[in-house]
Protein backbone atom coordinates (compact mmCIF):
# COMPACT_ATOMS: atom_id res chain seq x y z
CA UNK A 1 0.00 0.00 0.00
CA UNK A 2 1.30 3.37 -0.98
CA UNK A 3 1.14 6.29 1.35
CA UNK A 4 -0.08 9.80 0.76
CA UNK A 5 -0.87 12.63 3.10
CA UNK A 6 -4.47 13.70 3.54
CA UNK A 7 -3.61 16.88 1.66
CA UNK A 8 -2.50 14.92 -1.42
CA UNK A 9 -4.59 15.90 -4.44
CA UNK A 10 -5.12 12.18 -5.16
CA UNK A 11 -6.59 11.61 -1.69
CA UNK A 12 -8.64 14.82 -1.76
CA UNK A 13 -10.23 13.96 -5.13
CA UNK A 14 -10.94 10.39 -4.08
CA UNK A 15 -12.56 11.34 -0.78
CA UNK A 16 -14.61 14.06 -2.50
CA UNK A 17 -16.10 11.35 -4.73
CA UNK A 18 -17.32 9.26 -1.77
CA UNK A 19 -20.48 9.82 0.25
CA UNK A 20 -19.84 7.11 2.86
CA UNK A 21 -16.77 5.89 4.74
CA UNK A 22 -16.57 3.18 7.38
CA UNK A 23 -15.58 4.31 10.88
CA UNK A 24 -14.11 1.71 13.23
CA UNK A 25 -14.01 2.44 16.96
CA UNK A 26 -12.87 0.32 19.89
CA UNK A 27 -15.40 -1.11 22.31
CA UNK A 28 -14.60 -1.50 26.00
CA UNK A 29 -13.83 -5.18 25.37
CA UNK A 30 -11.28 -4.19 22.73
CA UNK A 31 -13.43 -5.51 19.89
CA UNK A 32 -13.87 -3.20 16.91
CA UNK A 33 -17.19 -1.62 15.98
CA UNK A 34 -17.42 -0.59 12.31
CA UNK A 35 -20.17 1.73 11.06
CA UNK A 36 -20.84 3.41 7.70
CA UNK A 37 -20.82 7.19 8.16
CA UNK A 38 -21.38 10.39 6.24
CA UNK A 39 -18.30 12.59 6.33
CA UNK A 40 -16.62 15.72 5.08
CA UNK A 41 -12.92 16.33 4.85
CA UNK A 42 -10.33 18.99 4.34
CA UNK A 43 -6.61 18.71 3.82
CA UNK A 44 -5.91 17.97 7.48
CA UNK A 45 -8.84 15.93 8.86
CA UNK A 46 -11.99 13.92 8.30
CA UNK A 47 -15.07 15.17 10.14
CA UNK A 48 -18.16 13.13 11.04
CA UNK A 49 -21.39 13.62 12.94
CA UNK A 50 -23.44 11.21 15.01
CA UNK A 51 -26.26 11.11 17.50
CA UNK A 52 -25.41 11.66 21.15
CA UNK A 53 -25.31 8.46 23.18
CA UNK A 54 -24.79 5.93 20.40
CA UNK A 55 -22.26 3.18 21.02
CA UNK A 56 -19.71 4.62 18.60
CA UNK A 57 -19.87 7.98 20.40
CA UNK A 58 -19.46 6.32 23.78
CA UNK A 59 -16.51 4.37 22.36
CA UNK A 60 -14.87 7.57 21.13
CA UNK A 61 -15.33 9.32 24.46
CA UNK A 62 -13.60 6.41 26.21
CA UNK A 63 -10.91 5.73 23.59
CA UNK A 64 -10.38 8.19 20.73
CA UNK A 65 -8.38 5.81 18.51
CA UNK A 66 -10.13 5.21 15.19
CA UNK A 67 -9.73 3.87 11.70
CA UNK A 68 -11.67 5.19 8.68
CA UNK A 69 -11.84 3.35 5.36
CA UNK A 70 -13.17 4.66 2.05
CA UNK A 71 -13.00 2.35 -0.94
CA UNK A 72 -14.35 2.25 -4.47
CA UNK A 73 -13.44 2.28 -8.11
CA UNK A 74 -11.35 4.98 -9.68
CA UNK A 75 -10.88 4.79 -13.44
CA UNK A 76 -11.65 1.05 -13.44
CA UNK A 77 -9.21 0.25 -10.63
CA UNK A 78 -10.14 -0.58 -7.03
CA UNK A 79 -8.85 2.29 -4.91
CA UNK A 80 -9.06 3.37 -1.32
CA UNK A 81 -7.86 5.32 1.64
CA UNK A 82 -7.32 4.14 5.22
CA UNK A 83 -6.90 6.80 7.89
CA UNK A 84 -5.76 5.72 11.34
CA UNK A 85 -5.88 8.44 13.92
CA UNK A 86 -7.57 10.01 16.90
CA UNK A 87 -11.00 11.60 17.19
CA UNK A 88 -11.53 14.93 18.90
CA UNK A 89 -15.01 16.26 19.58
CA UNK A 90 -15.75 19.71 18.21
CA UNK A 91 -17.60 21.29 21.10
CA UNK A 92 -18.06 24.89 20.01
CA UNK A 93 -20.17 26.43 17.28
CA UNK A 94 -17.07 28.20 15.99
CA UNK A 95 -15.26 24.87 15.51
CA UNK A 96 -18.25 23.32 13.75
CA UNK A 97 -19.55 26.11 11.50
CA UNK A 98 -17.53 25.46 8.34
CA UNK A 99 -18.05 21.71 8.63
CA UNK A 100 -21.83 22.10 9.04
CA UNK A 101 -21.83 24.15 5.84
CA UNK A 102 -19.75 21.49 4.08
CA UNK A 103 -22.16 18.75 5.22
CA UNK A 104 -25.11 20.69 3.77
CA UNK A 105 -23.23 21.20 0.50
CA UNK A 106 -22.37 17.49 0.24
CA UNK A 107 -25.64 15.90 1.40
CA UNK A 108 -28.77 17.32 -0.16
CA UNK A 109 -31.82 17.08 2.05
CA UNK A 110 -29.84 17.42 5.27
CA UNK A 111 -31.69 20.63 6.22
CA UNK A 112 -35.00 18.75 5.98
CA UNK A 113 -33.67 15.91 8.16
CA UNK A 114 -32.36 18.42 10.71
CA UNK A 115 -35.36 20.73 10.57
CA UNK A 116 -33.09 23.60 9.47
CA UNK A 117 -29.46 24.34 8.74
CA UNK A 118 -28.22 24.29 12.35
CA UNK A 119 -26.78 21.07 13.74
CA UNK A 120 -29.42 19.59 16.07
CA UNK A 121 -28.63 19.49 19.81
CA UNK A 122 -28.87 15.68 19.81
CA UNK A 123 -25.84 15.42 17.50
CA UNK A 124 -22.10 15.51 18.12
CA UNK A 125 -19.37 16.33 15.65
CA UNK A 126 -15.88 14.93 15.78
CA UNK A 127 -12.72 15.50 13.84
CA UNK A 128 -10.35 12.66 13.00
CA UNK A 129 -6.75 13.80 12.98
CA UNK A 130 -4.62 11.29 11.04
CA UNK A 131 -1.63 9.51 12.53
CA UNK A 132 -1.15 7.26 9.51
CA UNK A 133 -2.64 7.14 6.03
CA UNK A 134 -2.50 4.25 3.58
CA UNK A 135 -3.80 4.35 0.01
CA UNK A 136 -4.10 2.07 -2.98
CA UNK A 137 -5.08 2.58 -6.58
CA UNK A 138 -4.97 6.38 -6.41
CA UNK A 139 -1.94 6.93 -8.61
CA UNK A 140 1.17 8.89 -7.76
Topology:
Blueprint: H1 9-16, E1 21-26, E2 32-37, E3 40-41, E4 46-51, H2 55-62, E5 65-74, E6 77-89, H3 93-106, H4 110-114, E7 123-136
Antiparallel strand pairs: 1-2, 1-5, 3-4, 4-7, 5-6, 6-7
Description:
By secondary structure, this protein is of the alpha+beta class. It is 25% helix and 41% strand. It has a seven-stranded antiparallel β-sheet with strand order 2-1-5-6-7-4-3, with helices on both faces. Strand 3 and strand 4 (46-51) form a beta hairpin.
Summed up:
The chain is 25% helix and 41% strand. With 140 residues, the protein is of the alpha+beta class.
Shape estimate: globular
- CATH H level, superfamily name: Electron Transport, Fmn-binding Protein, Chain A
- Mean pLDDT across the residues is 93
Architecture (CATH level 2) name = Roll
Strand order of the largest sheet: 2-1-5-6-7-4-3
Indicate the low-confidence ranges by residue numbers: none
User: What is the CA-based Rg, rounded?
Assistant: 15 Å
The first-level CATH class is given as Mainly Beta
* Helix/strand structural class: alpha+beta
Number of domains: 1
Amount of beta strand = 35-45%
How many angstroms separate the termini?
Answer: 12 Å
**Can you give the helix content as a percent range?**
25-40%
Multimeric organization: single chain
CATH topology: Pnp Oxidase, Chain A
Write down how many β-strands occur, each being a DSSP E stretch of 2 or more residues. 7
Total of helices: 4
